[in-house]
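User: We ran a pulldown and think these components assemble together. Before we commit to crystallization trials, I'd like a predicted model of the whole complex to look at. Sequences follow.
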Amino acid sequence: DTAVSQTPKYLVTQMGNDKSIKCEQNLGHDTMYWYKQDSKKFLKIMFSYNNKELIINETVPNRFSPKSPDKAHLNLHINSLELGDSAVYFCASSRVYNEQFFGPGTRLTVL
Amino acid sequence: AQSVAQPEDQVNVAEGNPLTVKCTYSVSGNPYLFWYVQYPNRGLQFLLKYITGDNLVKGSYGFEAEFNKSQTSFHLKKPSALVSDSALYFCAVRDMRGSNYKLTFGKGTLLTVNP
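Assistant: Here's a predicted model for the assembly, 226 residues in total across the polymer chains.
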């Protein structure tokens, strides 16, 4: 009965590669988010979709591209991975303006 | 612009003692305020929120928070700490002015409850 799920849980890859992280929520929420948590545990919003429309697009390198095929899914594709992309990426969902429910995170390590 | 500050990187308390984790915020309009907890290698879990109404908000696991508009604070409290409360706590704010979807998080406070 996982509410917000992410795959994969761990991702280890070489610099320059392209990778994707998938997120799914079964809560019936209309808004989904991607956050990056760095090694100091600082949490930063990257993107948000409301009913498949992009509503938050923070200052993020354009190597990062979100895609929302439907309201229950929000994927994150990263091109040309760099060492500084190593972090934990969290997906979250909510009814717009309400509390967010977070997935378990994807730990990305770029070698 | 909206911002939130958690002035303490770390809080240590003895089991059974009351705990307080501090949070102050800055918004242009009225705030939505949230507390989340993160256990090691886990996602954030929602604890409680303030939107409007009673200044004392009760949440999960016996936690509560007091909204103080004059001091722009939203401190998290628990009357009697448990060792299992040890975790990273995040305060977050959303400015209710306009169509603002963004939630801004504090840098987190590591709570350690000693047996």
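Residues 8 and 76 of chain A are 12 Å apart (CA to CA). That may be worth checking against your pulldown data before setting up trials.

User: Thanks, that helps.
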